[in-house]
Structure formats: C-alpha cells, structure tokens
C-alpha cells in the first residue's frame, strides 16, 4: 500500500512539472488582452476571411474565435480536437474532402490550413443557417454550430418551435432550448457569448478590423 501511494505521488509530481513547463512554453494571455503571438497569424487570418466573406469579413469576430479555441497556440491539443482552430480529426478529414481544391489534405497543426479551414467552415455553416431573423442571430447560430455541430442546431431550432419560441432567433429563443446534456448545453451556449461579447471587443479595440458583430445582445 505504501509503495502504491509513493508511486501515485511521483506521478502527480511529474504531472505538476509537465503542466508547469507547458505554462512556461505557452503562457495564457493576460485577461483583457490580445496575445502577442496572435500578431504573427493576423495576415493569414485576414486573407482567409476575405477569401470566404469578401472585404466586409468580420475579421475581429474570427480572431475572437481563434482566441477562444486555442489562445493562438498552433500546437494546442485537447482530448477531442487539434491545432489553432481546434478541429476534431473527423471534421478535419470531412472538410478537406468537401473542399479539396481550396484546402488540400487536412493539416490541423498548420496555422495556414487551420485558419483557411475555419473560415471555409464558418462560410459553410453561415450559408446553411437560413431564415434567421437578423444577422446577429445568424452569426450566433453559426458559432454554436461550429462548436457543437450543425445537426444539434437543427434539433434545437425544432425544439424551440415546438415550445413556442421563434426558431429563427437565437438570443432569448433558440439559445434556451436543447435536449443536450447539461454540461454540453452550457459549453455550447457559452461559446458564441464569449466570442461575440468577451473576445471580439479586444480585437476591435486593437484595430484588427472588420465590422462589429452583434456587440449588444438583442
């Protein structure tokens, strides 16, 4: 028993050292600040966004999305997702197969590929969020679909309509309705909220450009 406890303590100590080293290599951005490392990817993001959405692309919104996904760390990895824009392996393969000419083979750890794929996927989702009451609702649903999958947004809108809410409005309507598990529901609803209202203003103030999207909640 004593030997087992000793082994467990050694493993915990090793994990603590690993986390400490990661913090040194990839320090989190200061609260309320654009990470310094974001600037090296700024031009790539702007090019990718303009390619998919034209000169009026919401650059600061997309920058806020990367901020939320990985804090601009191209080597970021979670149990389910990879790279700067945190695509799951299945989604990386899928989008590369659907848009082979513009994306090529899936390379989630390549910043250029990841930013192009994020912009392309945002365009794909945005074009399929039909009949939204306003662009503000449409972007919120697009972001929620990026986070949790478009199939869930379809089910959530259907459930909202069944309960008497407006399926074409996110804020105050669809956002409150979903059959998901509580933890998944909270994560998904926090996602557009953080990107639009917490992180987007940082990039607008820093002059990243693009129109402000839905800064005031309807």
Describe the protein's architecture and organization.
By secondary structure, this protein is mainly α. The chain has one domain: Lysozyme (Orthogonal Bundle). Helices cover 60% and strands 0% of the residues. It is built from nine helices and no strands. Helix 2 runs parallel beside helix 6, helix 6 crosses helix 7 and helix 7 packs across helix 8. The termini are far apart.
Helix content: 55-70%
Overall pLDDT confidence:
88
Report Rg: 19 Å
Proportion of β residues? Answer: under 5%
Main beta-sheet strand count, sense and barrel state: none
Number of domains: 1
Which structural class do you get from the secondary structure elements? mainly alpha
- Contiguous runs where pLDDT drops below 50 for at least 5 residues: 11-30
SSE series: HHHHHHHHH
For the terminal residues, how far apart are their CA atoms?
59 Å
Q: Helical region count?
A: 9
Which quaternary structure do these chains form?
single chain
CATH architecture, please? Orthogonal Bundle
CATH class: Mainly Alpha
Number of extended strands: 0
Shape: globular
């Amino acid at each position: 028993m004593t030997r087992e406890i000793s082994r467990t303590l050694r493993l915990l100590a090793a994990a603590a050292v690993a986390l400490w080293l990661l913090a040194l290599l990839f320090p989190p951005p200061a609260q309320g600040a654009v990470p310094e490392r974001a600037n090296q990817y700024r031009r790539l993001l702007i090019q990718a966004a303009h390619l998919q959405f034209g000169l009026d692309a919401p650059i600061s919104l997309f920058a806020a999305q990367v901020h939320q996904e990985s804090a601009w760390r191209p080597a970021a990895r979670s149990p389910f997702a990879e790279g700067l824009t945190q695509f799951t392996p299945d989604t990386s393969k899928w989008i590369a197969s659907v848009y082979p000419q513009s994306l090529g083979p899936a390379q989630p750890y390549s910043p250029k590929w990841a930013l192009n794929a994020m912009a392309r996927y945002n365009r794909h989702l945005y074009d399929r969020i039909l009949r939204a009451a306003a662009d503000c609702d449409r972007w919120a649903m697009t972001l929620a679909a990026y986070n949790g999958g478009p199939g869930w947004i379809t089910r959530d809108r259907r459930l909202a309509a069944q309960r008497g809410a407006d399926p074409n409005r996110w804020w105050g309507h669809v956002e409150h309705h979903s059959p998901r598990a509580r933890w998944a529901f909270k994560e998904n609803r926090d996602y557009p909220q953080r990107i639009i209202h917490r992180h987007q203003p940082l990039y607008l103030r820093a002059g990243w450009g693009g129109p402000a999207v839905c800064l005031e909640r309807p």
